[in-house]
Design brief:
It contains 14 helices and 10 strands. The chain is of the alpha/beta class and 339 residues long. It has 2 domains: 3-245, TIM Barrel; 271-335, no CATH class. It has an 8-stranded parallel beta barrel with strand order 3-4-5-6-7-8-9-10, surrounded by 5 helices. The protein has a two-stranded antiparallel sheet with strand order 1-2. The protein is globular, with a radius of gyration of 20 Å. The two termini are 34 Å apart. GO terms for molecular function: oxidoreductase activity.
Length: 339
Amino acid sequence: MKYHVLGRTGQSVSALGFGTMNLPHQDLDISKRALNYALDRGINYIDTAPNYKNSEEIIGESISQRRQEFFLATKLRQRDYQAGKAEIEQSLRRLKTDYIDLLQIHYVNHDHEYDQIIGKDGALKAALEAQRAGYVRFLGISGHRPELLAKWIGSDIYDTVLFHMSLVQPFALQDLIPTCQQLNVGMIGMKPLSGAFVKPASMALRFSHSTPIDVLLSGMKTVDEVKENIAALETRIEPKEKEQLWSLAAELGEHGCRRCNYCSCPIGIRIPDIMISHLAREKMGLLGRGAQFYEEQAAKIQQCHEYEPCRKKPLCEPACPYDLPMQQTIQRQSKVGAK
């Protein structure tokens, strides 16, 4: 296993981290085996969040007795002080630990939201209070707007930042990573398969691994998935392969969608999922989950052609901060065959 220093935290962390969002969807014994196997193989970065159902409790039940063997990251989803303080205390109980290595202010995508968090009675107050008391070692922030994250980490509050890094969302390479490197902020990349959409999985993992991030989070569930992820990253990425992967990422990222979720669809189309995946779908096809998604959305995609209120001007597009042609992209998908 390869290790990196996580920015100015000075902590040595495995290049592959264990994302636990999907653990609650299966038998506890399967999760226990996967987590313990990962630790046995040298994965020492474990990521969770209070809103990942009972993920924190699974970690507490499965590996709290091995607490000194891993760097534990969870998140703070609340926005005000009192709720934030209660959530931190709840996480400590669920995780069966006396301290959290990294507490990340989670899923911040709006300036007004950030202003609330850092305000007089915002959630950051609770995080800093927990840090001073020794319950939290380091603070981080996460979100889906790399250009905003680049601005916020300049405050010198945050030791790390968590962001999308995949073949179909490589934007942090330009918008955020240079700032992190300048400030020595630890870089954690998430969703290398863009939510289990992008194939082949090994190529997607290797692209994310080839970037300057310190930790790549992969949402593993079983021992076999841990083995597959480790195997995908075992061999060195040579310059020629890196050049090919980065070229492909530039092509597949031309859609421009950061998944900020500002947009909404009156007929229930999941706009960001389509915007982010459509070029990969057209060029390479998708993993099973992605193909199933398009099957489930097919009727709504067809309805997009006929929905009267959007005929003259799409209702979704004015909300997009990147002025993306969402209606045109969505309607085109009704003509794309499965691969």
